[in-house]
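tool_call: predict_structure(chain=1)
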Amino acid sequence: MSDPRPEDLIYDWNADPAPGFEVQLDDETLRDGLQSPSARDPELDEKMELIHLMEEIGVHTADVGLPGASAKAREHITALCKEMASMRITPNVACRTVISDIEPAAEVAQAVGAPVEVCAFIGSSAIRQYAENWELDRMVQLSRDAVAFGVQEGLPVMFVTEDTTRANPETLRALYGAAIEAGASRICVCDTCGHVTPSGVKRLIEFVQGLVQEMNPEVGIDWHGHRDRGLGLANALAAIEAGATRVHASAMGIGERTGNVEMDLLLVNLKLMGWFDGDLTKLREYTLKSAEYLDLPFPANYPVFGKDAFETSTGVHAAAVIKAFKKGDTWLADRVYSGVPAAAFGMHQEIAVGPMSGKSNVIWVLEQQGIEVTQARIDKVLDTAKHSPRQLTTDEVVAAAKSC
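tool_result:
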């Protein structure tokens, strides 16, 4: 019997047609990510390294901070923007929709001698308006004036409505309309509180698309989502399907409260869906370095890049992987019990020994360690594993095998 074709081994129910445009990525690690209650503000050299890793994994733009926050923030932002002036990745900064916030951004751009995109934000939901005692007419005027000032200063401006997913259509039409008339080149739809579901995302993006088509079809649409309900990644993919051309995300999804869309997992999914064709060999380094520099723990069970992502000690699962390896078929071994091919992201399948392991696990580990396999050693390792409350380390397997 001839060997089957790969497409004959996996029936793919994921009918994911490409969106028809290049999906752009905006990295929020160094702005929204730093709003995480647990994050450390990295040193400037660490931020520089992360910016270069962002470029290497294919990120198009990066939010490098709020210039109106402090002198230190402006110092870091200016240095990062200078570094990025000769890079493919371009900078943007967050500002309130007030001229006094945008003026420091204009000063940074002048000092750097290169454009710096302004992300001018204002709350848009009725609940936020009520809490802040805001009047819509005043919000519209502030938005129009802020965007016009940024454009007058030669800055590309993205107009951001916070809490868009809980705002009513009339308010969004008034705010977006004023921003587009004032010259905004992009508008950003935000799920600031992590409220929306994928179906809601599609309806909202379609509404915003309709408004853009009416006023200026050249205006780009961004999506910025949070994951309070655990829907951040699903919502981001839904936004792309509906027509959002740029998506915001951060390393590991760090950010305020429970955080944002995970940039690393977004890229993994875009790659597997055929919506991104860039080189992701640096993606693991980007993710782990971000965790290190922001002083955040990295969960062992984190998808793709966690320690446990491609490791199994379960007998039935491990046996299938081992049989694939023994066929000399690494493609098969990487997929027979994994929805993500480890090799595509610089990882590999690992077999371990634990309380739920079988004989094949032990044989495999001993062979990989260059230890002669005997029945006595198999029995000793299995006995040790069955009496252990957790998976054995490789050293523990070796010690048990050599004790007999």
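agent: DSSP finds 16 helices and ten strands in the chain. Proceeding to next step.
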